[in-house]
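Example record for the data management plan.
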Amino acid sequence: MPVNEKFEIQGINHLALVCKDMKKTVDFYSGVLGMPLTKTIDLPAGMGQHFFFDIGNGDMLAFFWFPDAPESVPGVTHSESLVGEGSITSAHASMNHVAFNVPGEKIDEYQQKLREAGIDATAVVNHDDSETQASPTLTDTTFVRSIYFKDPDGILLEFAAWTRELDERDVNSEPMSVEA
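Corresponding structural encoding:
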């Protein structure tokens, strides 16, 4: 397992996103996904709200609600489509998606639960090292299985389960740069 020798980072304290309607956000994340609401803050001077949800392992997913926030723009502020159904591109400095770690043996069950709750969830994607980077079944190079779905604001979410430990063979691409 690689070690960070510069900073003792212990995971995600919280990831803060912005929602259009805090009530719908609470209904979805607590009601549908079962994440406990752990902290609510009314910001000073009517600036909005900041709510926190427990996502496990001491990590939090937080949302701001700003009454004067600009509208989201699919394809810019967040991906326009679900994985496998169109473009997942979003703008530089945007948050493309949030992947929640779940037990591998629960992926199919969770897909069904989401669909029963009226959430459009993708087929299970077996991410691998093939040319298409996905297979309908597990392969020797599958490293994660996942399903994708969206929250009420169109934020792309993923339930993901590692299928094997990653090692030095998995770091084999040179980083791209726009500079010549």
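Summary line stored alongside the record: DSSP finds two helices and nine strands in the chain.
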